[in-house]
Write a structure and sequence with these properties.
Blueprint (H helix, E strand, L loop, with lengths): L6 E4 L5 E6 L18 H13 L2 E7 L5 E8 L13 E9 L8 H15 L4 E7 L3 H9 L3 E6 L2 E5 L5 E5 L2 E7 L4
Parallel strand pairs: 5-6
Antiparallel strand pairs: 1-2, 2-3, 3-4, 4-5, 6-10, 7-10, 8-9
């Protein structure tokens, strides 16, 4: 059983990676040097949800403290099929910086998230993956996720300039049974 909210990983090259819940002061690290600045308000909203216990946010950092990966887990949602707080959770905003990919970091983050949830009694983990993200789909299938449906992928958010952005990203809904911890 995972008793901690943090974990450590060593890449094949010997670099230490640390996974831990992010603090509010660390949220700018999720913007990845401006690449995801447009999600600034969204990150702040999700962080506020961590304070109420409905969401968990972890960041993977290198030895300098730079955020190189992230995963958000929704524990409770209005749509109980998505996340019911007891048996089913929803994984989103999972990414690893391009220069850190193919070193096992993504698998490390996924292993941690799945074990964390399983050790707390969750039986299922759902996610959506863009239909055109073939590498991610292959990764999830390899990890035991199964496609259970299609998602239109229409959503919106307010960017860092207070402009509403509409997103259309058709996705596959995927699910995996978790092992009890």
């Amino acid at each position: 059983m995972i008793s901690s909210d943090s974990a450590e990983f060593t890449t094949p090259a010997g670099e230490k990676i640390f996974l831990k819940p992010l603090t509010q002061a660390e949220l700018p690290g999720l913007e990845w040097d401006g690449q995801y600045i447009h999600f600034r308000k969204l990150y702040a909203q999700h962080f506020a949800s961590t304070l109420s216990g409905t969401t968990r946010i972890w960041g993977a950092t290198d030895s300098t403290g730079k955020v190189i990966g992230q995963v958000f887990i929704l524990l409770y949602a209005k749509d109980k099929e998505l996340a019911d707080g007891q048996h089913r959770a929803y994984l989103f905003s999972f990414r690893v910086r391009e220069e850190w990919r193919n070193q096992g970091i993504g698998s490390f983050i996924m292993d941690f998230a799945e074990e964390y949830l399983g050790s707390r009694g969750f039986s299922w983990l759902r996610l959506n993956v863009a239909q055109n993200n073939l590498k991610a789909i292959a990764l999830y299938k390899k990890r035991g996720y199964q496609i259970i449906g299609e998602e239109a992928g229409n959503w919106r958010y307010q960017d860092h300039n207070n402009v509403w952005q509409n997103v259309h990203e058709p996705a596959w809904q995927m699910i995996k049974a978790l092992k009890a911890g």
